[in-house]
Structures are given as C-alpha cells and as structure tokens.
Amino acid sequence: MDELISVIVPVYGAQKYLNKCIDSIIGQSYTNLEIILVDDVSPDESGRICDEYAKKDSRIKVIHRETNGGISTARNTGIEAATGRYIGFSDCDDYMHKDMFKTLHDMLVKTDSDIVVSTYLEVPDDDDTQEGEPIGNLDDIKTVEYTGVGCMDNLLTELNVVTILPWNKLYKKELFDGVRFPDGKNGEDDFCIPHLLCAAKKVTYFEKDLYFWRARPTSYSRSFKLSRVDYVYVLEEREQFLKDKISDELKHRFLVHYMEILWDFYYLVRYNYPEEKALYNELRDKFINKYKENESFLHIPAKKELKWKAFMNHLFVSDVWYSIDQVKRKTIRKIKHIDNYNH
After folding, report:
1. Cα first-last separation, the chain
2. Can you tell me the distance from the alpha carbon of 247 to that of 75, in angstroms, rounded to the nearest whole number?
3. CATH superfamily of 5-220
4. Residues spanned by CATH 3.90.550.10 within the chain?
5. pLDDT digits (tens, 9 = 90+) for 248-268
6. pLDDT at residue 224 above 50?
7. Statement: the pTM of the whole predicted model exceeds 0.85
8. For residue 303, with 0-12 CB atoms within 10 Å meaning exposed, 13-18 middle and 19 or more buried, which class applies?
9. What is the mean pLDDT of the chain?
10. What single DSSP character describes residue 9?
11. What's the rounded Cα separation, in Å, for the pair 195 and 176?
12. Does residue 46 carry a pLDDT above 70?
C-alpha cells in the first residue's frame, strides 16, 4: 500500500476555479490521498462546493473555519488535521498534472529525500486545458540534490521562485514539527519554507512541470498592497533564523537584498499610499540604521553606494534614480512577459 499523502487546500473566494482544482486532485494517479479542504469563511459558494465533493469522495475532509484567518491560518489548520506520512499543498484556483503526487512521491523515495521540488507552468487565468507532458522514466529525469541549508543559496538565484513556493513540493510530515506558516502575515512562504528546508537533510530538485499556476490579474503577486510591507519583517526574521547557519558571503547577499527591498518599499508606499508617511519614513530609518550597523561588512559597487547614500541623505537625485530604475524594470518585465507588481 502506498503511503498516505495529505493534500491541503486553503479555500477562499474561488468558486469559479474550485471544481477544476479539486477534480485534478481526486483524479491523481496516486490514489492514497487525504484531501483536506479548508474553507476559510469563503463569501461565495466555495464552502458548499467543498461539501458536495466530500459526499462523493471519502478521501475528502472539509474543515469550515469559524473566522477568516487568511491563507497561513488555513494552511496551518490543514497541517494540524493531516494524518498522512507526507504533506503537499495546492492553492484553490490552480490545478495539477494527473501524475503530480505519484511523481513527487516516487522521486522522494528514489532519492531518499526529505523534500522534493518540481517546476511548474504558468497558465492564463481562463486556461483549464493543460495536461502536461508525459512523465516518462524517473531514471531519465535529471535531479540536483542539496542539503537543506544548501538550498538557502537558491533564494537569491534563478531558482528562488521554485525554492520558496509551497505547492510544487512534497514534504515529510515530521518537518512541520514546531514549524507553521505565520498567522496574519504576508510573505508567509518566505517565512515558513526556509524553516522547512533547513530541517531537511536532503532536498532534491527536478525539472518537470507538475503544477499549473493561474496567472490571475487580481492575484496577490500582481498588485502592490500596503500589507506587502510585511515582507520586510519576514526578511528580518529570516536573518535571525539563518545567522548561525550560513556563510558570511550569503549573509552579505541577504543583507544587500534586504536593503534593496527597504529602498523599493519606501517608494512604493510613498507613491501609492502618500498618507502613510510614518510607515515610509520608518522604512528609510531601518535602511539608515542597517547601513550604519553593517558599514564595515558591506562591500558594494560604487554606483550602488552612491545610490544608497543619496537615499539616506534625502537627496532629490534618489527619487530620480528610483524613477529611472522603474522604467528599466518595466522594460525588462515587458520583454520577459512578466507583470510588474508595483502598479
């Protein structure tokens, strides 16, 4: 008998997409699944849809939360209820390859890993047609293996996205002992996933698109909201968590990334929420204090140092610099067909 996999799906406001999502899970070629649908007080018919599916498939467990807690709380509710040997996730508006969990499970067992990580395919909002390529022989799939801490390097490379997402992975359940998504915070993946990765002895990556992520125009990743500033505090927590686990070189890279986020968010808040003066000034103060604390440790190009010092000294050229930078970003994103989350 295959080992039980608990698949956790936070559900909120997704009645348009939910049938496709659930159908793709119950139709998995790996059948020993515990499908946990967590209705986070959805305002539409999503809760009813979940209940209808539970009547038809005994593997489905529906949890109706009494209060809306957000995606982190919904995932945590599912983790608490999970009884499987392994845990996987799906978002309620996405869907997956019919062999997703079979491939993830077989790869995890074959490589003796604690976490396995696949690639995913971005699909248009209205596309329900993707089935994915046949998986083929596992022995023919190229894999790359890391220690859990070794994955931290990937957070600042082209592997950042596949590393930090929760739903393109299969996890041994014991990794969640003492680890949960942060309730009420945005940037929850950046908080939780590093903890899970660092708890793993071995993490295996492979390139097979097993999950279909809808590029919804109203999704969280495509607009700047004030709540995104939570990401700053997530990065601060990550810095503390990793300080004794990673090299000085990686600490420096994370530090520069953190300061660039502060610089970016200062302007995003100032331009999109000009009434939040206390908040964007707090972001600048954090930047200045961090620079002073680490001035002897920082080694950055002269151009970046000029940019940062102009910012710290409230010079008008810093505003111009930011505007030019945004034009460059938009151009690059347009060429690469990536939506800009800033506006």
Report:
1. 50
2. 32
3. Spore Coat Polysaccharide Biosynthesis Protein SpsA; Chain A (3.90.550.10)
4. 5-220
5. 999 999 999 999 999 999 999
6. yes
7. yes
8. exposed
9. 91
10. E
11. 9
12. yes
Beta bridge partner(s), residue 209: 119
Beta strands in 58-163 (DSSP E): 60-64, 86-89, 95-96, 115-124, 143-146
Rounded Cα gap, residues 154 and 60, in angstroms: 35
Q: Helices (DSSP H) in the chain: which residue ranges?
A: 15-26, 46-56, 71-81, 100-111, 160-164, 188-199, 230-242, 248-272, 277-294, 302-312, 316-335
Position 332 scores a pLDDT of: 54
CB contact set of 81 (below 8 Å; sequence gap of 6+): 6, 36, 61, 63
Q: Contact 256/210 with Cβ under 8 angstroms? A: no
Please give the single-letter amino acid code of residue 264.
Answer: D
24 pLDDT more than 60: yes
Instruction: Name residue 213's beta-bridge partners.
Output: 122
